[in-house]
């Protein structure tokens, strides 16, 4: 009984949308008509498209560059700030503020709604 609310929320937020996406990926789907099941025809078409291969390669390059940059930047900042140089509190605050503002804005938004 304790896990039931978690399972219900999981199904509503994750499982049902994933199943719907899987089903519609196997269908010819237009907004104005109901989905028509065509099997793996969509996947066969996309893998034959040369632009798809280019987009996958570009995405993988972007992920590699972006994640490497963020990890190196975070590691460098941590190593520098660990030594507590002059002005380290200002730098730490400036580095953390972009993570705090969206959360604070969301909290303010919800306090005004209820």
Q: What key phrases describe this protein's structure?
A:
single chain; mainly alpha; 2 strands; 78% helix
Give your account of this protein's structure.
By secondary structure, the protein is mainly α. The protein is built from four helices and two strands; from the N terminus they run αββααα. Strands 1-2 form a two-stranded antiparallel ribbon. A hairpin with a 7-residue loop joins strand 1 and strand 2 (36-37). The longest helix is centred in the middle third of the chain and has 33 residues, at 50-82. The model has no long low-confidence stretch (mean pLDDT 88).
SSE order, as H and E?
Answer: HEEHHH
The percent range for helix content is over 70%
Distance between the termini: 30 Å
- What percent of residues are in strands? under 5%
Largest sheet: 2 strands, antiparallel
Taking all Cα atoms into account, the compactness measure Rg is 23 Å
Unreliable stretches covering 5 or more consecutive residues: none
How many strand segments? 2
Taking strands numbered 1, 2, ... along the chain, how are they ordered across the largest sheet?
1-2
Shape, per Cα inertia axes: extended
Secondary-structure blueprint of this entry?
Layout: H1 4-25, E1 27-28, E2 36-37, H2 41-48, H3 50-82, H4 88-113
Antiparallel strand pairs: 1-2
């Amino acid at each position: 009984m304790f896990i039931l609310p978690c399972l219900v929320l999981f199904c509503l937020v994750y499982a049902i949308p994933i199943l719907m996406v899987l089903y519609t990926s196997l269908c010819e789907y237009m907004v104005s008509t109901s989905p028509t099941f065509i099997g793996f025809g969509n996947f066969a078409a996309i893998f034959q498209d040369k632009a798809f291969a280019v987009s996958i390669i570009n995405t993988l390059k972007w992920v590699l560059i972006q994640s490497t940059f963020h990890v190196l930047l975070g590691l460098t900042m941590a190593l520098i700030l660990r030594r507590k140089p002059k002005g380290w509190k200002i730098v730490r605050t400036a580095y953390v503020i972009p993570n705090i503002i969206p959360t604070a804005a969301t909290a303010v938004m919800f306090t005004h709604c209820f």
